[in-house]
What does this fold into?
Amino acid sequence: MAGRQSADAQDQRFPAAAAVPGVTVAKFGGTSVASAAQLRKVQAIIDADPARRVIVPSAPGKAHAGDTKVTDLLYLCHQLAAKGQALGQVWDTIAARFQGIVAELGVALDLSAILREARERIAGGASADYAASRGEAIHGRVLAAALGATYIDAAEVVFFDRAGRLDRRTFPAIAARCRIAGRVVIPGFYGSDHAGEVKTFSRGGSDVTGAVVANALDATLYENWTDVSGVLMTDPRVVAEARPITEITYRELRELSYMGASVLHEEAVFPVREKGIPINIRNTNRPADPGTMIVAERDAGNQVVVGIAGTKGFTVIQIEKAMMNTEVGFGRRVLDAFERLGISYEHTPTGIDTLSVVVADRQLVDASGTSKLEQVLEDLQATLRPDTLKVTPGMALIATVGQGMTHAVGTAARLFSSLAKARVNVRMIDQGSSEQNIIVGVEEADLALAIRAIYNEFA
Ligand code: ADP
Ligand code: ASP
Ligand code: MG
It folds into this structure.
């Protein structure tokens, strides 16, 4: 396994001998725990490896297309309560879902008191975070009963500080409570704030809980079980046959996630990266598939490009002025104009006499929905006196990611010729200074075509 501590460090942590296995933290996503049938798969996965001692479940997700996630139903209950309306059928659907799973699994667990308390508190005006957290809180009990595991309420071990960030007291608290024999279930997604009130991470946050628990326990592995066989080389909605990535570094994954690959919560990488714990993305429905290993370092071999991700919704503002390079402070004055209007930018590719600023469209409107574009252009015109000022809206950005790829001979040439062959008009190029990616801007209508072309070239 790459990216882990040396053998010596391992020996010190487990002085008694190799007989003490390291802990694997296994997080299961919404679809993985959506029904009794899915929980049976989870049980088989846990039984298959004694290292899987600590389990972090999500709330039940969609059991079939057209189904609704329990978390979404819980937010709906909170909205109904806020309007003074009865929770009615929405709550009944949630309760029936949990009770149906318990009955079908045949576990001895009476949920009636727990369900009643949650309903009363939500109806009585509890926070949206409290309401949403009940999906994981209740399902954690179901899973613990099914697995014969000890249940630990996440509110007692996961803490947020006043600023809403994870409080480092979390790590020793988890470690202390997990120092027991047997399996442990810690529900994902929530903890408690500085005042002791339930607070959640952002949506998809059970990934973060799993990572935090892995850090706290010095886990040897963080397994993230979901409904795909790993991080796919590109979005399966664009390339249906996209193949899973065998191995990818934390940094490469970050580049892909930033550009829209959404298999793992963005904040789930930092806690494990800090300790060099690898993440293994696995498929609950195909447990024999090896999935993707996310590690600190990898040997790129001949796989230069590891993945491709793209997003729509960008505008490019190109400033052209002969001899701009001789004007000291030109670049700063360009960026000042954006800063004055509170606009953050994504990229600033430069040519000899041109400087472009790539901005996400959502940055170009203020809180009331009014466009800031005219203002920026007037400001740039007044302060820079450019020869031309050109605006290209409707752009999509595509990141082609792989460590050291900007150095690998011929990679850029292959990328651009694949796009040319597909007749995609490349409007902008930025070789990220991270040397991990090349970003191209294309018209939004060409996004899928361009991603397919790059995929076919490098897959
Ligand atoms: P979970 O509920 O298990 O946390 P998510 O829905 O959060 O699962 O994440 C898995 C989904 O991410 C997949 O079903 C897939 O549709 C989507 N996805 C988007 N881009 C990618 C990618 N590059 N690789 C894998 N999955 C992706
Ligand atoms: N249940 C939460 C959500 O739907 C958290 C998670 O599944 O990770 O966002
Ligand atoms: Mg998820």
